[in-house]
Design goal:
With about 300 residues, this protein is an alpha+beta fold. About 20% of the residues lie in helices and about 35% in strands. It starts with a helix and ends in a 16-residue tail after the last strand.
Length: about 300
């Protein structure tokens, strides 16, 4: 009787051990399958991204939307589809939405850019424009802060009259009193909403400060009104995002192109979409012979 009882206990222990071993084994197998699935998805995602980047390169060369296959030596199941759209509207984000580096600046075309000398600087805009800068979600608004998180000021340089050109500059700083730099104060409104509609999708960026610029120039001599040709927007003290919008019904001329590329790994059904901004060649620094301020 005692022998049978011991045998039953041994059997129970063996069953418990088998249950533990099977549980651990299934857990390891499940983790391995999950890891393998994740690795496969990551590989497919990377292949789709590579295809999208190849599409960007092709459209940069052709300046048109295109569709094609990609072969990186890993099969021919990769494709890309691209579209190329002009950046032109009443409201635009400068530099393709990328940060504008301080003391460097970004060009804002107020007339037509063209490689044809007979067409460049034509179709100028008039009236007024508003320049916006400073991301309220990223910029420290404390005027005592220095370094990378300092509240940015903005320098706006506008070239007027393509036949007899002259330059006008404005500098705005929300912290001009504490910095004692003599710069002008921005417009009174804060947290200005810049609504950008691109390809049916609305993007709203909340920019902290704004300044209104009159694009009907005056050479100070003949008192004639001249059209603006282009502007350079230069952040001071720190990097910032920047935007511009027209007052009235006019729209900005093209500032460059946005290339949208979707890469597809067909076997895995994975897609990746990326965008690239291609601006026009930067205006030579010689056209801006001096700067008002260099912090």
């Amino acid at each position: 009787m005692s022998k049978n009882k011991n045998s039953g206990q041994v059997l129970l222990i063996v069953v418990l051990i088998l249950i533990v071993v099977l549980t651990v084994g299934l857990s390891i197998a499940s983790r391995s399958i999950t890891s393998l699935r994740t690795s496969t998805q990551e590989i497919a995602s990377q292949k789709a991204l590579d295809a999208a980047e190849a599409g960007i390169e092709q459209s940069l060369k052709s300046q048109t939307g295109t569709t094609g296959d990609v072969n990186f030596g890993i099969g021919t199941n990769l494709t890309y589809t691209t579209s190329v759209d002009d950046v032109t509207d009443k409201e635009i984000i400068l530099n393709g939405g990328n940060i504008v580096p301080k003391d460097d600046g970004i060009d804002l075309w107020l007339s037509k850019f063209s490689s044809d000398p007979s067409e460049i600087y034509s179709n100028t805009v008039g009236g007024q424009m508003v320049i916006l800068w400073g991301d309220k979600n990223k910029t420290n608004l404390d005027c005592a802060t220095t370094g990378a998180n300092a509240t940015p000021a903005i320098e706006i340089s506008v070239l007027f009259n393509k036949s007899n050109p002259y330059l006008k500059r404005w500098v705005y700083d929300n912290c001009s009193a504490s910095r004692k730099n003599g710069f002008s104060s921005p417009d009174a409104s804060n947290n200005t909403s810049l609504k950008v509609v691109f390809k049916g999708k609305t993007t709203v960026d909340y920019l902290y400060k704004s300044a209104t610029i009159d694009l009907r120039g005056d050479d100070g001599v003949s008192q004639t009104v001249d059209d603006a040709v282009f502007a350079r927007i230069t952040p001071l003290y720190s990097n910032t995002i920047a935007g511009a919008k027209m007052v009235g019904s006019e729209v900005f001329p093209s500032q460059g192109t946005i290339i949208t590329s979707t890469g597809t790994a067909k076997n895995e059904g994975t897609k990746r979409t990326i965008q690239a901004f291609q601006g026009y060649p930067k205006i030579p620094t010689e056209l801006f012979p001096y700067t008002i301020f260099s912090p």
